[in-house]
Design a protein that fits this description.
85 residues, alpha+beta, two-stranded antiparallel sheet, 1 helix, single chain, disordered N terminus
Length: 85
C-alpha cells in the first residue's frame, strides 16, 4: 500500500487555496472528507484513511497554488482509491 494522491481544483489563487484548505481541515477534524473532481467522488473516513496530508505548493512556472490531497489507505482493498484526478 502506497500513498495515494488527488489534485484538488488544479492551480488556484492564494486566497482561494487558503479558503479551500481551511474548509478541508474542518471536514477532517469532523471525521470525514469528501473529495470530488469531475465525475469521480470519494468520501474519506477514519475507516478508510490512516494518514492524510493536504499540501499547497507554489509552482515557479505558473501563477497560483497547486493543491493536493494525499492519503494512505488502511486496507489493501482500498488501494483502488488512487491516482491523480
Amino acid at each position: 500500500m502506497g500513498i495515494q494522491t488527488a489534485r484538488l481544483g488544479g492551480v488556484m489563487g492564494v486566497w482561494e487555496a487558503a479558503d479551500r484548505l481551511e474548509a478541508m481541515a474542518r471536514e477532517l477534524r469532523a471525521g470525514s472528507l469528501g473529495v470530488a473532481a469531475g465525475r469521480v467522488s470519494i468520501r474519506l473516513t477514519p475507516a478508510v484513511m490512516l494518514d492524510v496530508e493536504i499540501k499547497a505548493t507554489k509552482r515557479p512556472d505558473r501563477e497560483g497554488l497547486d493543491v493536493r490531497l494525499s492519503w494512505n489507505p488502511h486496507q489493501p482493498g482500498e488501494s483502488g482509491l488512487r491516482g491523480e484526478f
